[in-house]
Amino acid sequence: MADNIVGIKPHGGKLVNRLTKKDPSGLFSITITEGLANDVENISDGIFSPLEGFLGQEDFERVISKGRLANELAWTMPTVLDVDNETAKKMKEAGDILLKNPEGTGVAILNVEETFSFDKEKMAQGVYGTTDIKHPGVAKTHSLKDVLVGGKIDFIQKPQETEIRKYRMTPQQTRKIFQEAGWKTIVAFQTRNPPHVAHEMLQKTAITTRDGVFVNPLIGKKKSGDFVDEVIVKCYETLIENYYPQNRCKLATLHTEMKYAGPKEAIHHAIMRQNYGCTHIIIGRDHAGVGNYYDPFAAHKIFDDYP
Fold first, then answer.
1. What is residue 187's DSSP assignment?
2. Are residues 193 and 261 in the same domain?
3. Total structural domains in the chain?
4. Least C-beta-crowded within 10 Å: which of 95, 112, 181, 201?
5. 8, part of any domain
6. Is the pTM of this model over 0.90?
7. Which residues contact 303 (CB under 8 A, 6 or more apart)?
């Protein structure tokens, strides 16, 4: 855990740090998806604070039913590792498991604490408010394997740097940048799109009324028809370099998948930005929504339940 905190307290009071130099030699290994590999890194860097690994059964069931962890701390999106029954048995027997990304690189060690089955319909209804298989999040839920594995992770290997990762930052880094800029009030701007006129107006208003704006586009798997990551980043590079006042807008990328969970995902987005050091977040109309599944202002109203 990181105790030297500058600015607003992270969610749960401490920034998680699961970076380690443990030797994974000889460990039983499994390959995880790129999305899960990104989230393992997000756990290790403290972006998902207070999580230290994948949810166990008690936390999972509370998140599904109440939008909170077992200790009552707000957490609305289940961060889980799914495997088949045979793999679950091997993992339980092995104890410590090497998690490999799709390229075959071992990125983290998972200490298996428990394995458990789950109700996919109940999970879909609890997170997405619907069991309609046409909803991309519901479809993703039904594609999960039948067993979930809970336990803390130790991160051992950062992925190779790429052009799209050059703006990825940890909460320790963003908090230092905000401090050096002299910002005390920081507005987070979540986006999965290039900027348009309404975005510009919101960001300019935030710059005018607060110390700075933290533009934090989501990089990762999205639904068909959404903009590609490179276009989003390039647009914001140009806007910040050539249009906004100097030292009033910072860009960093958030590498995780869109879940399209509407209000529940809005809470998750706010938690991550609090961990980065932001004091405010702009929640848009039908934030993180898809189709007509959510009331346009449901993502605003849900914050009344999370004071």
1. E
2. yes
3. 2
4. 201
5. no
6. yes
7. 266, 267, 270, 283
**Does residue 227 sit in the same domain as residue 170?**
yes
Number of H helices, E strands in the chain: 10, 12
Residues identified as active-site:
192-193
CATH number at residue 116: 3.10.400.10
- pLDDT tens digits, residue range 138-157? 999 999 999 999 999 999 99
- Tokens read off for 181: 């800029």
Nearest to 155 by CA among 253, 48, 269, 5: 48
**Strands 147-155 and 114-117, bridge-based pairing:** antiparallel
Tell whether 167 and 102 lie within a shared domain: no
pLDDT tens string 76-98: 999 999 999 999 999 999 999 99
Instruction: Check: CB of residue 55 under 8 Å from CB of residue 39.
Output: no
pLDDT tens digits for 227-262?
A: 789 999 999 999 999 999 999 999 999 999 999 999
Closest CA to 97 of 58, 48, 143, 40: 40
113: containing domain: 28-155
